[in-house]
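Backbones bend. Shown next:

***
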Amino acid sequence: MTYMKERRRPTNNGKVKQRRQRRYSNGSADNPFQENNLNRRGSQSSFRKILTVMIILFFTAILAIFLFADNKDFLNGKFGEHSFISTLLSKLSLSNSSKDKPEFVFPFGPRRQNILLLGVDSNGADSDLWVGTRTDTIILLNIDPRTKTVNALSIPRDSKVYLPKGMGIQKINAAHAIGGIDMTIKTVEDTLGVHVDKYIMFHDEGVREIVKALGGVDIYVEKNMHYNDNAGHLHINLTKGPHHLTDKDVVEYLRFRHDAMGDIGRTKRQQWFLRGLLADLQKPETITKIPHLIAVTSKYVKTDMSPYEMTQYAGLAKHFDMDNIEIAMLPGAPNKHGYTSYWILDPEKTQEVVDRLIYRENSVGRKESYTASIMRSTDQIDAANKLKESLEANGIRVMCTGTTSSIHSQFIAHSKYVTVDYYADLKKEVPAVKSRQFVYEPGNFMCADTDFTVVLAGDNK
């Protein structure tokens, strides 16, 4: 078993806190990373961003409430001026511009919290939804109540890790099937050297029910998806382009993994599904579906949070700026051992990502000058040229431009000097970089060794 070097760090009150040990391994006793270093494929080491489907079941009803609680005319027209629902929702939220808007006092105080989000699959039995199920989606959220910001760290389900209690080397998604939520939390804590404060677990069937309640969701399918598995009762037939996906279609879209990207591509699709879902939640008619959405979450969500804690998180969620959410996936590379595929974590880059997103070690200052890359789709030539001119006018050297097949626009930070704060300042000077998902991918350069990359991908953001 290989351990990262143990570190000690000061806490908020100045005392010394011992950070948990990190351990990563691909199962080799002498050099657990040798095989990964020899076989790493750079084109596939890009860790894909997420705020995935698991956040949906917890925040769907809550987001709907806070999206429409300010609209008294709409509430009164739908439910009556003095109805219970109109009164309740109106009291839950004051206008964002109101000086009297209440601040939420968290039961855990102002310290940052790590919330583990888990999405479990079906166990194939008509019994307990949570017994013997694998965690196909794993995200560690770091929430800072003081700054009202959230970072999201995605853990690929095929990550090769040690399981506690002598269970040996396994994929991380097996922890829940073997030892339940306790083993899952312990595995994440031991692997990343962090502390998990709370967990929220969602069942896959809940996704179908939420989409069904909403009447479908609009998604841009990035490629033709065709796959048939009679034994697994899975039949996927989706064509490239814009779609209004039904609950059945969404399951197919989210489960598709039969391309070069495998599970990493599926993780990416989960993220864009969430974006489409949040757009649909902002439609006025969503408010009438809240009772059904709440019923779904009560059946398909499991958590150790109290109702009071959940309302506090919901209050904070209203303040989140989607453009300031920093997202990363644990860096590594695919590796196959016989018929078993693993995601082999890169220890140095994994440590760097954990330090940045979970421990928030971003006080590195600014560089005197920055470099950039621009990746564009074939229909974005003019936009790329204008962006290059604007960046260079602000003292940023554009090292290269290239083409990409990506259908989603992003701002990808490669350097530790490119922080969310830097991106916020850059948006003021170069408006063309606005409204892009902020992703942290150290070392995964798309066309040159630059501080950041701007991806221009047309209208399908």
Remarks:
- Confidence is low (pLDDT under 50) at residues 1-18, 22-58, 60-70, 91-105.
- Residues 53-64+103-357 form a domain with the Aminopeptidase fold (CATH 3.40.630.190).
- The chain has 13 helices and 21 strands.
